[in-house]
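Narrative of accomplishments. A recurring question from our advisory board has been how the design workflow behaves on a single, concrete structure rather than in aggregate. To address it, we present the structure tokens for one chain from the evaluation set, followed by the sequence designed for it. No filtering or post-editing was applied between the two.
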């Protein structure tokens, strides 16, 4: 939503003095265009990202524990995935863009549940294996049939000129085999036909999109954190990890 349409966005804000602060995102057509500026990705639609070092699929978790991992995941307990605060300019900017494009709901990106060591002991072993240094956030993600998340850069990635204090790293471990109609794109790299336990490691600055157009719900484990040297070494080495031996 461009800045000259700020009056439309103010209708979504609380009605009191200074309720709607100025923000650099107002200089762009939509909030997602602003997020693009937080990344140093090339944004060239025609470049081939197949061999990009920023997207790594070489790490795989296997074992009987993985074969039966859904016994831990289900029943899945949905947690609130959208937090909207007073003066939340992101929520207002995204809502304005949704209204402009006739998108009726913001509840399409899926649901989340934090990993609980008591409920999800195998998943916790995988989280611990990565040896993140701090700020570890292990999340089970559910993508229902019809859920999608539009092309975006993660909002916490920070600006290439630097206001993020510490580097973050993310991995996604698929908890089920791929089904027809499930799709992921990281940069220009399509990702499909994965097996349960396959791991996607990526730089948080790489824009991406996911959608579940299949006949089945899709579950995955996403881990975000400040990586240690061991974390980066393990990811770079790749290979097959037997979860039964962890």
């Amino acid at each position: 939503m461009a800045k000259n349409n700020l009056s439309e966005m103010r209708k979504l804000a609380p009605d009191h003095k200074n309720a709607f602060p100025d923000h650099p995102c107002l200089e762009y057509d939509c909030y997602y265009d602003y997020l693009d500026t937080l990344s140093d990705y090339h944004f060239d639609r025609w470049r081939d990202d197949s061999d990009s070092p920023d997207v790594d699929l070489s790490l795989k978790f296997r074992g009987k524990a993985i074969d039966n991992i859904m016994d831990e995941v289900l029943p899945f307990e949905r947690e609130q995935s959208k937090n909207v605060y007073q003066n939340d300019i992101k929520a207002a900017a995204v809502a304005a863009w949704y209204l402009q494009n006739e998108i009726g709901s913001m509840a399409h990106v899926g649901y989340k549940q934090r990993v609980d060591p008591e409920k999800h002991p195998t998943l916790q072993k995988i989280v611990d294996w990565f040896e993140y240094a701090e700020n570890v956030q292990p999340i089970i993600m559910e993508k229902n049939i019809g859920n999608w998340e539009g092309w975006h850069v993660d909002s916490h990635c920070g600006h290439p000129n630097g206001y993020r204090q510490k580097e973050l790293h993310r991995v996604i471990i698929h908890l089920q085999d791929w089904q027809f109609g499930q799709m992921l794109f990281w940069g220009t790299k399509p990702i499909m036909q994965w097996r349960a336990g396959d791991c996607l490691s990526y730089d948080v600055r790489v824009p991406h999109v996911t959608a579940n157009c299949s006949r089945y719900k899709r579950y995955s484990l996403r881990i975000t954190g400040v990586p240690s040297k061991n974390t980066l070494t393990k990811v770079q080495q790749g290979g097959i990890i037997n979860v039964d031996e962890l």
